[in-house]
Amino acid sequence: xxxxxxxLIETAVGRNKExxxxxxxxxxxxxxxxxxxxxxxxxxxxxENLNDIGDLVTGKxxxxxxxxxxxxxxxxxxx
Length: 79
Description:
The protein has 79 residues and is an alpha+beta fold. It has one domain: 2-Layer Sandwich (Alpha-Beta Plaits). 27% of the residues lie in helices and 38% in strands.
């Protein structure tokens, strides 16, 4: 079963386009959207299991220059 999560991302001022471009190239990132509201970007990610989701967020997404904060929301059922 595939694990899926929504990653809510805050970025530094002026860094949205750069962060979106970097996120879009990562394996496991299914979509990236710039949004309005308290967050700047929402990314949908998938992995084989929850460990893959955790590794992607902590190892690949957190180090991206321009990201100041993330909140990861795991899905809990079929859509």
